[in-house]
Amino acid sequence: MKFADFVSVKAVNANLEAEDKEEVIREITSSLLKAGEIEESQYESIVSAILKREELGSTGIGRGVAVPHTKHPSVDRLVGTVGVSPEGVDFNSLDGEKVQLFFLLISPPDRPGDHLRALENISRQLRDDTFCRFLKQSKTAEDIQQLLEEADNNQFGS
Amino acid sequence: MKPKAVAAERMLARGDQIQVVQLMSEPRATRTVVVSNPQGLHARPADQFARLASSFKCKIELVKENERVDGKSVLNILTLAAVQGTQLVLEAEGEDAEAAVAALAELVEQSSEENE
Questions:
Q1: Which of B17, B33, B78, B111 sits in a 20 to 30 Å window from A16, CA-based?
Q2: One pLDDT digit (tens) per residue for chain A, 158 residues
Q3: Could you give the ipTM of this predicted complex?
Q4: Helix (H, G, I), strand (E, B) or coil at B48
């Protein structure tokens, strides 16, 4: 699976302003709402489902990366986006580091395979230090989009 | 005397020359497991696996077909995209290899409703 298969380009944000976990999840989910990827009536339900998932264990997987996610019946295909926080957010990560890169995923409940393949793609690309560094240095949504495209064209990682 | 050396001597006493060669290097343990979680080895089970793996001293690798990754890294485990039914080989090398493989195999194979 490629980034282009699940990342909502319109919702990509290079300047997340939130300073804590709940705020940043709200900020990224709002971007998906504004991009028309989720329904307004489902916003609170999606945010609380993502927060509930975080209570079970942080999705901050290290290297300044987090993959907040949930299953939600209101989506009929995997929806996701990317956000970059220049300052970093305390996300109770496994390695204790602040998170700068967020990949938020909302999956239909009956598609665990798609969710896994999205995680596979994200983790495979993030293993590459250059991709990680460039993403953290992104100044605009266009920078991020370009990096995702390059990653999809196998210009990073394995 | 170190346990490793004792084991090596015991093997020598048995005259098992081939085994001794292995024992002179680090102990190894291998186990093939099948992912039982209906959701596959997604973020949380991968996290649990990496945490448990990290509690052991030995080197731990996970092998899926021709891919081999560090079992102590969530990021690396996630690159396997191991769906339910995937066959994985656990390989450990180090003094606590046997215990590590046993504990990790149990984690992967437990049919875990709470891990969905």
A1: B78
A2: 999 999 999 999 999 999 999 999 999 999 999 999 999 999 999 999 999 999 999 999 888 999 999 999 999 999 999 999 999 999 998 788 999 999 999 999 998 899 999 999 999 999 898 999 999 999 999 999 999 999 999 877 55
A3: 0.81
A4: helix
In a domain, A158, yes or no: no
Asked if residue A157 belongs to a domain, the reply is no
Alpha carbon distances (Å) from A70 to A52, A73, A107, B1, B42:
9, 10, 6, 53, 12
Domains belonging to chain B, first-starting first, are: 26-115 (3.30.1340.10)
Helix residue ranges, H only, chain A: 3-6, 21-34, 43-55, 112-126, 129-136, 141-152
Specify if A84 maps to a domain. Answer: yes
Put simply, the answer to whether A67 touches B43 (Cβ < 8 Å) is yes
Domain residues for the domain of A84 are: 3-152
Distance CA B113, CA B91 (A): 26
CB-closest option in B47, B78, B79 to A94:
B47
Give A113's contacts in chain B (Cβ within 8 Å).
40, 83
Looking at residue A31, which CATH number applies to its domain?
A: 3.40.930.10
